[in-house]
Structures are given as C-alpha cells and as structure tokens.
Amino acid sequence: MKTVLEERKSSICGNRDRGISCERESVSGAVSQRACVYCGARVVLNPITDAYHIVHGPIGCASYTWDIRGSLTSGADTFRNSFSTDLRETDIVFGGAKKLTAAIDELMEKTKPSPKLIFIFATCIVGVIGDDVDAVCRSAEAKYGIRVIPVKAPGFAGTKSLGYRLACDAIMNLIRPHAKQHKPQKRFGVNILGDFNLAGEMWIIRGYLEQIGVPVISTITGDSSYKTLLQAPSATLNIVQCAGSSAYLAERMESEFGIKSVKVSFFGVEDTVNSLLNIAEALGRQEIMEKAQKFAEEQALQVLPIIEKYKPHLKGKKAAIFVGGGFKAISLIRQFNELGMEAVVVGTQTGKKDEYEVINSLVNSDAIVLDDANPAELERFMTEKQADILVGGVKERPLAYKLGLAFCDHNHERKHPLAGFEGIENFVKEIYTSINSPVWKYA
Amino acid sequence: MLDLTPKEVKERSALRINPCKTCQPVGAMFAALGVAKCMPHSHGSQGCCSYHRMVLSRHFKEPAVASSSSFTEGASVFGGRSNVNTAVKNIFDMYNPDIIAVHTTCLSETIGDDLNSFIMDMELPSDKLVVHCNTPSYVGSHINGFFNMMMGFMNYLTKKSGTTNGKTAVFPGWVNPGDIRELKRIAKLMKTSTVFFPDQSGVLDAPMSNKYEMYPEGGTKIEEIRGLGDSKNLIALGEIISVEPAELLEKKWKVPFTLLPMPIGVAYTDKYVMALRDTTKVEIPEELEAERGRLVDLMLDSAQYTHGKSVAIFGDPDIVIGLVSLALELGMIPKYVITGTPKEEFTRKVEALFKHYDVEGCKAKANTDLFELHQWIKNERVDLMIGSTYGKQIARAEDIPFIRAGFPVIDRYGGPLQPIVGYEGGVRLVEKITNALMDRFDRDSTDEDFELVL
After folding, report:
1. In chain B, whose CA is at the least distance from the CA of A393?
2. What distances in angstroms separate CA B422 from CA A285, A294, B102, B275, B292, one per listed residue?
3. Spatial distance between the Cα atoms of B176 and A343, rounded to a whole number of angstroms
4. Quick check: B17 contacting A, CB < 8 Å?
C-alpha cells in the first residue's frame, strides 16, 4: 500500500528539496482534511453576533455549521442559531428563489427586534438550479430597508481560501455603502482583523491594545456586530491576525479607505512581543511605543518562569503541526522552539507559497513540510519522524491518540485561549498534560 | 441563551431554524463505515466529506475515514465522471480498501451524474468492488442516506445460492457500537446465529493499540452481505429506518422479515427477544429473564421520582419512538415528541403510543425543528429533555434537566461505547433519567428539605 500518491509528491517536501506545490485543488480520491468554499466564507462571517446567517441550500450545510466555533460574544447570540431554507426536491425542480424570499419574509415578520443584517449563503446547487440570489437580496433590501448580503459560495468553486475572500467581499459590501454615505471622520485607533474571538482571544488582544493606549475601533469579525463593523472605515490602522482569511480584506480596506495594515500573530512570546511593538511602530506615536515596550517586557517576564518551569519536561520532544493557515504554523514552530521542542512535521490546509518559504527557513533541514495533507501521510511522517505530539484540529485528534501521540487542539474547538501571554501558559500546560497523561502508561 | 426565540408560535413554511436532522450523505457514510475494509466515498465537493467526517469524529471520538471526488468548477459543468474515475483509482492505489462505497451529494445529483454507468464502465482490479447509492441531500434526511446506502450494497452484492445459510440477518438501524454489541449479546444468549448489517462495532469504537488502522477490525464482511439473500430470516430494527432495506431483501430474495421498533425499554426489548425465540425456538435463558427482572425492579424502585414527570424527546425517528415507549413505561408524560426527518409514519407511531398508554395533551410532530420545540416548551415547560447535543441550548435557556441520547452527541464522552437498547440499555437509561430528575430535586431543595436518603 502506497501512502503517497504520485500527484501529491510535489505537495510534500522533505530534505533539501524545498519547492512546494500549494494553493491547488485537492486530488480526487484523497482523504483530504480540507473543507470547501462555503465553509471558508461561513467561518469568517459567523462571529458577527447579531447577523442572521441564512444558508440557502439543502439542510446539511446549515446543520454542520451550527454553532461549531467557539466564537464568544459579549452582545447578541443570534449567530448561535441555525437558519436555512432547507431546500427540497420540488425547489430543485422549480427553483429555490421563491423559498428564499419567503424565508426572509418569515424571518422579518416574526422576529423581534427586527433583523438589521442578513447574510444569504448560497451553497453548491443554488447556482446550478439558476436561483438569482442577488435579485432576491436586492428586493429584500428595498422591501425592508435593511442589509441583505449575498454570499455565493458553492463548495466546488475552489478551496476554503476562496470562501475567505468571498466573506471579505461581503464585509466590504456591508461597510462600503455606509462609508460612502456618511464619510466617517478618521479616528486614532485600530481594527482587529482575522480574529474570531475563539475562547475569548480577541478580548485578550483588545485588552493589551487598550493598556498601551491604542483604542480598538472595530473587530472583524470576532465579537462584532452590525453597528461596530460600520465603524471600521474610520480606523487609522488594521492589524491582521489570521492573514489567510483577512489579508485580502486589509488590502481592500487600504485601497478604498486608505487604512494601512500590519500583520500580527499573538501566539508565543516572541510573536506576541513583536506584534505589539510592530503595532506601536506602525501607529508612529512615541508614547505608545514606550508603553508597548514596557508592557511587553513586563508581560514577557511574567510568563518566562512558566516556560522555564515546563521546559525541562518538554525539551527535546518532537512536534507535528497540522493547521489551517501557514501563518499560524509559523507561530507554532517558533513557540515550540521557545520550549526547546522541535517541529518535525509541518502541514497546512491552505498555506501560501511565501508562508511555506518562512516555514522552511524555521525548521530543521530534515523536517517534512506538506500542503493539504491527509491522514495516511500524516501517519506515515509522524511515525517516521517519531513525533511526540500533534497540534491540529478536530479530525486529527483521534488519529493522534490512535498513534499513541499527545495532542493539542489549536483549532476552533479549543476551550481556553492560546493567544497572548495568558495563552502561552494554557498552551504550555496543554502540551505538558497531554504528553504526560498517566493514561499513556496503559496504552 | 437563545434570546430570540419568541413564545408565540407561527407557522413557517420556508425558514428552517435550528434543525433536528441533517442531510442524506452523512447517513450513507456512517452506514458504509459499518462494512469491513470499506472506504466511503463522497461524490461531490470536498466540504461535504469534510463535514461528515467531522460530525462522525465528534460523536464517536474516533477517526472517520472517507474520501471525496473533490468537485471543481469544471466537474460541475461537465459532470463528475472523470473525478470519480480518478478517485477510485487513487483510493485503491493508496488506501487499498476491499470495496469503495460511493454516495452522491446534492451537487452530483443536480447535475445528473449517472453513477450506475460510471461504475459499470470502470476497470477495476479483479478482487476489488465499487458500489453506490443515490443520496440527494434535498430528499428525506440522514436517515434516508443510511438506508439508501444499505440498499446500495444489497443491490450490488446480494445473491441467492438456492440453499439457506441458516443465519438470521439483523438490521440494527442507526445505533451506536455499544448498542450493536448488546444486540449481538442478546442474540447469542438466544442461540441465534446472526449477521449484522451494517455493523460499526469495532470500527467506530476501535480499541487503543498504539497503531492507526485505517480499517479497524470490524464491520460486516463483503461475503456476509453477499449471503444476505441466503438468510433464513431477517429481523429489521427500526420501523422507519429499516423498512425499505427489509422490503428490498424480501422482494429480491424472498427472505421473510420481522420489522420491529428499536428495542428500547421493556416492551420493545421483549419484542426483539421474542423474534429471536421465534427464529430459534429456544427457551429464553434465565440469564436474560433475570436481566429483564432487574430492569423492572429498578423501574419500580425509582418510579416515585419518574411517574407523572413530563419529558420532551427529540432526534431520529426510531430512537425517539423507542425512548417514548420507555418513558411511557415509567409513567412519564412524553409531552413533546419531534423529529426533523420528514416521515409522517413517525407521527402516527408516536400518537399510537400515546393512545396505547392513554396519555393526553401530548404532541408529536415530524419534519419540524428545535426552534419550534423550544417555542412549545416556552408555552408549557417540561421536567426533562432527552435528545442529541443540539438540545443543550434550550435546556440551558429554560433551565431543564437534559439527558443526551441519539445522534449526534458531540459534547460528552463514552456514550457510543454503551447501549441504550436491550434490558441493560434500559437500566442505563432509567438510571440516567432518575439521576437527572433527582439531581434537580436536590438542587432545588431548600436546606430544611435536603436529605441524605432519597
């Protein structure tokens, strides 16, 4: 039994061969861990807490994405419900546009307070059966005087990355007309892009920024709302956390609202400190720079003992990383390095070419780097490289355990924040407890 | 929590809120995982496959392996023939299953891919098989997907040799591995030689071995599926999920079947045991009698806490019908009983139970959602809720004790390893129900009413 398909060989790098083939469709028949265009669009828009996310399509796509991400809210919990048109056979034959219109009407008639923002996610078959989703949205906007934004995200149209892009377009579609009409006054402050407030991480970052004197104007999309999103154009700087999903939005906001952006990552001491300093520098105010430096130093000093405490137990252990985006993989490699651990297998679902270049510069020359890996490949390389722990998402957890590997969930099921200085302690503890679970003795 | 659910119920015809069902393909994938050395294959976009694997992984806490045709824009225009051809070649090359079980998705159904002819034209390695079934996501629910996949296997594989193999086929329906083990144990006690189809025990509760097996030991063997046509008889569990596969086997190969409700609670487990007795003509062993006796004993012991309590039960039709039956045996009032699966037979069966046990003021509804259930509860609350994890938000919003049963349970551990069927499963459920009610009783007691002995 082969574990690597011929077509996949160029998506895997080992040893000195470092040109990776990425940003491609998955190979038919592979047990890919990837999701689809709809999934990408949904996860980015989902944390908008007071939006009504209606999935236009058969029921599955709505049910699988119902409250699946631990995006925390300080306001409405509308987004934690699942809305869909649940298309049936007759709708497929005669078209589903009528049902979509009716669904919007039912929502508008029966919901108090009245919805202000609806996203319509059109899934795989909607385009195929010829529903004019744009027209339905336009007439609903006219009828109710609210925003009804189409997100045409057929699963087959590309990878999850395309879905991210569609979500970013939908956000622009939401904020641009408002900005055009109201010409917002520029205010000193930042938008946080690409943080979805998993386990409250966005709140942590927001707290840091406030402590160094940087007001947060809008968050996209963690713990956001219709009202807060509309504020975004008045910010002076965008800080981009999950670049995979939001770099494109930052580009568009720069060209249309003149907001510069800085890429950040708040995973690990090194990246967190650097990110705070980079934000301060980008804002160009001396007092903030000083505050940031002082704050970062203090905080880093506080977490160093924690790292030192666990380091002896973790030093020399080998980690395998399999996450969605490349930027997060980079942070994780650095974080393992801080702990004296070594990343021996690194894979992403949708990493970009430049990210793979950075990854290759951070790992040892014999590490394995893969794009869009599948369980068989992960198994082979983790075994070959004798990894002790896998960092991944829901589908990888049982695989790791079956192989006798420890596991850390660094995806949307994480139950405690892994970002910022607080997150470092959680991360280190999780790695430590998983590797040292007494249950391994019986396995 | 769920602040927007209004008390006032208005009829909805287009908007589904908080579903109590999902789409066909995940049922097909789950069924196919119950066949030995089988790779379930999703013929559609890769998101489908990914979502289905995710929900199965979350429920069973196990890897759930399946492949995808990974449709692209081109495939959606020109059809998915080349995708499935490449996929099948790659799967046999790389993952080496004995059989690939293809199911369709809304996309491949809508563009009209003809899997029959695609598969007929494939050149397969001599000892390998490909079967398929149609699972349009816009028809029925995941329950349909499950039985459609069963029928897909049977259409392709079953044969009749002319001589009976003396075995009793059992269709266990959509249950957990722990349930299948229990059903098998009872059949063994009844000295019945059985073939369970499908059979996820061993596959989706594989023991820890420090080795990852893509196809863990377990599942109905291909030979066993082939031999279904030679079965002496069939016991089909789940009057809704198993009726079509049972009828197919009868029509195709004249295998007589007994269609039974899911053996949950005393009366329905009795039916299963009696059907086994009718098959083998053996006396019911003392061991099983004693199990039944212990369950009834427990029900009596705890009756003062369960009798007259109202309960909302939701989930998949056959599991729900079984749970309703058990609740009624305990003297509980199954006030609201729903499923998202559009099968009116469900409503009739549940209403018949209401009538049989002479309870009033109870509602049963198929093809509805948890939003409506929540509205009903807001109008008149219940003492207990039983169902999948998706009831959790309602239970919290309304502060109602909640027991998890059915599919999916994605926020608790250990459930799939244990049965809810059979007398033993009955003991487990009665303990859960009583404990949930008594924990609540203790919580709500004032200090002067709070007692050690209950």
Report:
1. B54
2. 72, 66, 33, 13, 9
3. 37
4. yes
pLDDT band of B169, cuts 50, 70, 90 = very high
Residues 6+ apart with CB under 8 A from B442: B450, B454
pLDDT tens figures, B318-337: 999 999 999 999 999 999 99
Is the CB of B17 less than 8 angstroms away from the CB of A398? no
Pick the CATH number of B24-157 from 3.40.50.1980, 3.30.565.10, 3.30.365.10, 2.40.50.100: 3.40.50.1980
Q: What is the pLDDT of residue A3?
A: 58
Closest CA of chain A from B88, distance in Å: 6
Please list every residue in chain A whose beta carbon sits closer than 8 Å to the beta carbon of residue B21: 59, 63
Domains A6-24+315-412 and A184-298 share a fold: yes
CATH superfamily of A37-181: Nitrogenase molybdenum iron protein domain (3.40.50.1980)
Q: How many CB atoms lie within 10 A of CB B248?
A: 19
Note the pLDDT tens digit of each residue in B76-128.
Answer: 888 999 999 999 999 999 999 999 999 999 999 999 999 999 999 999 999 99
CATH placement of domain B286-448: 3.40.50.1980
Question: In the sheet where B233-237 sits, what is the strand order?
Answer: B194-196, B168-171, B233-237, B257-260
The residue written with tokens 């011929």 in the block is A6
Q: Looking at chain A, which residue has its C-alpha nearest residue B368?
A: A86
Query: How many Cβ atoms are within 10 Å of A177's Cβ, its own excluded?
Result: 12
Least confident range of A48-57, A228-237, A351-360: A351-360
Cα–Cα distance, A95 to B179 (Å, whole number): 42
Q: Which residues of chain A make contact with B2, given a CB cutoff of 8 A? A: 77, 80-81
Q: Confidence band (pLDDT; 50, 70, 90) for A5?
A: low
Decide which of 3.40.50.1980, 3.30.565.10, 3.40.1190.20, 3.30.413.10 is the CATH code for A184-298: 3.40.50.1980
Dist. CA A245–CA A259, nearest whole Å: 18
Q: Residue A9 pLDDT > 80, yes or no?
A: no
Predicted-complex ipTM score: 0.95
Distance of CA A179 to the CA centre of its chain: 26
Short-list A12, A96, A3, CA closest to A367: A12
Instruction: Label residues A385-400 b or e (16+ Cβ within 10 Å = b).
Output: bebbbbbbbbbbbbbb
* Cα of A174 to nearest chain B Cα, Å: 23
Domain ranges of chain B: 24-157, 168-280, 286-448
Q: What is the mean pLDDT of residues A138-145?
A: 98
Note whether B256 and B278 are within 8 A (CB): no
Q: Is residue B367 less than 8 Å (CB to CB) from chain A?
A: no
Burial (CB count within 10 angstroms: exposed 0-12, middle 13-18, buried 19+), residue A308: exposed
In angstroms, the CA A239 to CA B411 distance is: 34
CATH number of B168-280: 3.40.50.1980
CA distances (Å), A258 to each of A221, B372, B383, in order? 20, 47, 57
Average pLDDT over residues A337-360: 90
CA of A297, closest CA in chain B: separation in Å?
39
For residue B83, give how far its alpha carbon lies from the nearest alpha carbon of chain A (Å). 6
Q: Rounded to a whole number, what is the distance in angstroms from the first to the last CA of chain B? A: 33
Residues 26-55 of B with CB under 8 A from A: 26, 41, 44-55
Domain ranges of chain A: 6-24+315-412, 37-181, 184-298
Asked if B139 has any chain A CB less than 8 Å from its own CB, the reply is yes
Across the interface, whether the CB atoms of A54 and B96 are under 8 A apart is answered no
| Rounded CA separation B378/B394 (Å) | 10
HSE value, Cβ hemisphere, 13 Å, CA-based, for A261: 26
Which CATH number applies to A6-24+315-412? 3.40.50.1980
